[in-house]
Design brief:
This protein has helices spanning about 5-20, 35-50, 70-80, 95-110, 125-135, 140, 160-165, and strands at about 25-30, 60-65, 90-95, 115-120, 145. By secondary structure, the protein is an alpha/beta fold. Strands 2-1-3-4-5 form a five-stranded parallel beta sheet, covered by helices on one side. α4 (about 95-110) links the parallel β3 and β4 (about 115-120). The radius of gyration is 16 Å and the shape is globular. The protein starts with a helix and ends in an 8-residue tail after the last helix.
């Protein structure tokens, strides 16, 4: 839970809010049961709840770090049928790429066509290919956005810090 996690929280919160003109819409965070995912969930929930963003309807769904089945996604969908075909709610994945792909496949093939956000796991290079293998269309793939700092050849934080500064995020850079 270092400085990089602070940047990830800021970037995800900013991305979600910049896409959402109505912060009264629900945000659902699916996250793994490990320290990293729990920490990012806590930080993101706190950030989205602050007055700067003002989200009040944030749900969190915890799942085992090494799932063998994804029945928790079906359970959530069964409990939230009113959100089906609603494009105005937001899913956040704090997951590995394969978990995220399985969650997304289940959501989108069941007509939960919402915007989906994620961090490093969802931003992995093979992620799009994996979703295409699952049969997702390009329109469905366009619903997914992820944050991941690009690597730097010198200071691993410099490019990300520069990006944050370039986009007016100076107050978050120490």
């Amino acid at each position: 839970r270092g400085l990089g996690d602070v940047y990830k929280r800021q970037a995800l919160a900013y991305l979600i809010h910049s896409d959402n003109s109505n912060n009264a819409q629900p945000v659902v965070i699916f996250y793994m049961t490990n320290d990293y995912a729990t920490g990012l969930r806590d930080a993101l929930t706190t950030k989205l709840s602050e007055s700067e963003y003002g989200y009040s309807d944030i749900k969190t769904i915890e799942y085992d770090e090494s799932p063998t089945n994804f029945s928790f996604v079906q359970d959530w969908m069964d409990d939230n049928l009113s959100l089906k075909d609603n494009t105005e709610f937001y899913i956040v994945l704090v997951s590995y790429a394969s978990d995220g792909a399985n969650i997304i496949r289940r959501l989108l093939t069941n007509n939960f066509n919402c915007k989906i956000y994620g961090g490093d796991g969802v931003a992995e290079e093979g992620f799009q290919r994996l979703l295409q293998e699952y049969g997702l269309t390009s329109n469905q793939l366009n619903l997914i956005q992820a944050t991941k700092p690009r690597p730097s050849t010198s200071d691993p934080n410099s490019d990300f810090k520069k990006w944050c500064k370039d986009y007016g995020r100076k107050k978050y850079i120490k």
